[in-house]
Write a structure and sequence with these properties.
The chain is an alpha/beta fold and about 280 residues long. It has helices at about 5, 25-30, 40-50, 65-80, 90-95, 100-115, 135-160, 190-205, 225-280; strands at about 20-25, 55, 85, 120-125, 165.
């Protein structure tokens, strides 16, 4: 920001000295492996865009929104960060105890506490996983309903708190397969770069200074061989889907039954109405 710009009344951009990332495996960086092992993900890319600020990533694989509130939030608040990005909730949609009311209370508490310590907070709402990950029809419908409820809850917190949120469903290129890793559940390096770009945009809208735009050109990540893709799918992907599916399947059958019951009752009522109208005419 130049002296001239400040004298003309243009507000100074807020420099971000510390960025904190909270959430689940996407926030950890899964899908964007480093040559020496471990994961990079959108966090370091976003920190670089913010001018090389200090980055603390408190996320962990398997985390749920309740995990963020009870385990990650206390550590994050103690750091008094300038900006916080939270990506969590998908693990909740695949559990039998999915409760949007409790999830909203937990997420609102997280956001409120972070705002209290002076952080700019940005969340993320979710895309339709069935467009990139093949699922049986009952599971697809069940997950879609859960994701819709999750997104509705996230947006209500965003509106109530007046914070930023990226919409993965509307993110340009979100449904291109190149944006996804072999498991189709986590972003690829390109996908993480797209996330970093979107988060940078929201932080800039909130008044944060973006020093360097995030490049969408892949660089610095580890090359993944075809056999590694297959090995991951067999050793990690299928067992993960089996575990999560066992929790989601009962709900999926409930959705399937409700849908069949609705169609049946609609047919019966329509048929009876037709017979009744016919009787009146005769």
């Amino acid at each position: 920001m130049t002296v001239q710009a400040m004298s003309e009344g243009v507000p100074a951009r807020r420099a971000v000295g510390r960025l904190v990332v909270l959430g689940d495996s996407t926030s950890v960086g899964l899908g964007d492996p480093l040559p020496g092992g471990g994961w990079r993900g959108f966090g370091p890319l976003l920190a670089d865009a913010l001018g090389g600020c200090d980055l603390t990533n408190l996320s962990r694989t398997g985390a749920r929104i309740g995990t963020v509130r009870h385990e990650q939030l206390p550590m994050a608040a103690a750091l008094r960060p300038d900006a916080v990005v939270v990506v969590a909730g998908m693990n909740d949609t695949m559990r039998s105890d999915f409760d949007p009311t409790q999830l909203r209370a937990d997420l609102d508490h997280v956001v409120g506490k972070l705002l209290d310590v002076g952080a700019v907070v940005v969340l993320a709402s979710y895309h339709d996983h069935a467009k990139v990950f093949r699922l049986p029809a009952p599971l697809r419908r069940a997950l879609r309903r859960r994701v819709d409820e999750l997104n509705g809850m996230i947006r209500s917190v965003v509106l109530a708190r007046g914070i930023g949120c990226i919409d993965l469903d509307a993110l340009p290129g979100a449904y291109d397969l190149a944006a996804w890793s072999v498991d189709r559940l986590h972003p690829s390096e390109l996908g993480h770069r797209m996330l970093a770009t979107a988060f940078a945009g929201e932080l800039e809208l909130a008044g944060c200074a973006i020093e360097t735009p995030v490049s969408l050109e892949c660089a610095g990540g580890a090359a993944i061989a075809a056999w590694q893709h297959v090995a991951w799918l067999v050793l990690k992907g299928i067992p993960w889907l089996w575990r999560r599916g066992s929790d989601l399947v009962p709900y999926a059958f409930t959705v399937l039954y409700a849908d069949r019951y609705r169609r049946f009752t609609t047919f019966v009522v329509g048929h009876l109405d037709e017979l009744f109208t016919r009787e009146l005419r005769e």
